[in-house]
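Deliverable D2.4 — example input (structure tokens):
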């Protein structure tokens, strides 16, 4: 990894575990976790099954698809789908059942 790529990466922290990993803007949050050896719950990986749903404690994400499988109320309460979310800033996530 060169210094330019490093500069563009964001830090993602799992609040409960205290684990941190880096996310390239080219990877979904789920893909970045898996690339760093952290298994987050997942199934469809296309934003429909909601298996990966977790809480965004801080930071901002953008979605790769127009309508990820979350209601407006769920989005406003901080829930995200990491399989189709890309980090726009450093993130802190509250995830259940993360494994290394
Ligand atoms: S893995 Fe199915 S919605 Fe994320």
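Example output (designed residues):
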């Amino acid at each position: 990894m060169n210094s330019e790529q490093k500069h563009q990466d964001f830090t993602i922290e799992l609040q409960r575990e205290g684990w941190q990993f880096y996310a390239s803007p080219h990877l979904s949050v789920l893909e970045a976790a898996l690339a760093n050896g952290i298994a987050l719950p997942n199934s469809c990986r296309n934003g429909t099954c909601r298996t990966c749903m977790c809480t965004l404690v801080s930071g901002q994400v953008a979605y790769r698809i127009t309508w990820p499988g979350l209601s407006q109320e769920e989005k406003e309460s901080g829930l995200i789908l990491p399989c189709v979310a890309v980090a726009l800033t450093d993130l802190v996530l509250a995830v259940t059942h993360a494994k290394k």
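The two ends are 23 Å apart (CA to CA).
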